[in-house]
């Protein structure tokens, strides 16, 4: 029954998207016979995938009123994003130094220039060590910082992790408490903080399920990526002993297309 309901929802979103494209091309007449067909189709796709469908998805999710303890980030469209699997404790400069000492690079802010550079690097397979990340949300806000390590020098494949800062005062709260995840306070960068992270490995190019936007494809096994990040930081002596905390309530869960055991690795920055 749950599977059937999911299929109906996806068909409804797809139908709304097709209706939106039809409106753009035939009713609103944003293109005419003087415009090349390929340009008209490209414009219709861009408007539908990046303007209409995301808004349809957000509206649909509000109607459905999904309520759960989020052990995962969300995309700008409101879909489940990368699972939370890492927490580091300390000041921002220690966090940055930890990843730099391990050979990782801080991601550039996402903008028109960095997005264009990323697109060119991706198509031509040129190195871009500081390539920007797409925006994911946790605690009601976008990530504060992200770090990455290219695989074989390619911008198409990389280890990467996003972090959101949280007041150190909340470290005693259980991770399966909704109040922990609904907190939107951001501590000062100079203060010790909880750096809540979501680490995944990019493997290539893909489309999003509902809005058909271009994005990086990611490996399903986020447990191994979490363990890889921890091993990298341990190898460089950037963190202390690792503690294990649980964000979810099940031993093995599937979030989006990811498979995760729900455990979060926590460590103090050295």
Summarize it.
This protein has helices at 2-27, 37-64, 92-101, 112-124, 178-182, 222-235; strands at residues 72-74, 80-83, 86-90, 105-106, 137-138, 141-142, 145-151, 154-167, 193-207, 214-218, 239-246, 253-255, 258-260, 263-269. It is α+β, with helices and mostly antiparallel strands.
Percent of residues in beta strands?
25-35%
Anisotropy-based shape? globular
- Give the domain tally: 2
In the predicted model, the low-confidence regions spanning at least 5 consecutive residues are 61-69, 248-253
Order of helices and strands: HHEEEHEHEEEEHEEHEEEE
If you compute it from the alpha carbons, what radius of gyration comes out, rounded to the nearest whole angstrom? 20 Å
How many DSSP H or I helices? Answer: 6
| Chain-averaged pLDDT | 75
Number of strands: 14
| Main sheet record | 8 strands, mixed
Structural class: alpha+beta
Spatial gap, N to C terminus: 50 Å
Assign a percent range to the helix content: 25-40%
SSE map:
Elements: H1 2-27, H2 37-64, E1 72-74, E2 80-83, E3 86-90, H3 92-101, E4 105-106, H4 112-124, E5 137-138, E6 141-142, E7 145-151, E8 154-167, H5 178-182, E9 193-207, E10 214-218, H6 222-235, E11 239-246, E12 253-255, E13 258-260, E14 263-269
Helix pairs in contact: 1-2
What does this 3D model show about the protein?
The protein is α+β, with helices and mostly antiparallel strands and 270 residues long. It folds into 2 domains: 2-64, no CATH class; 72-269, no CATH class. The chain has 6 helices and 14 strands. Strands 3, 4, 7, 8, 9, 10, 11 and 14 form an 8-stranded mixed sheet that branches. Strands 1-2 form a two-stranded antiparallel ribbon. A two-stranded antiparallel sheet has the order 5-6. Strand 7 (145-151) and strand 8 (154-167) form a beta hairpin. The protein is globular. It starts with a helix and ends with a strand. Residues 61-69 and 248-253 have low confidence and may be disordered.
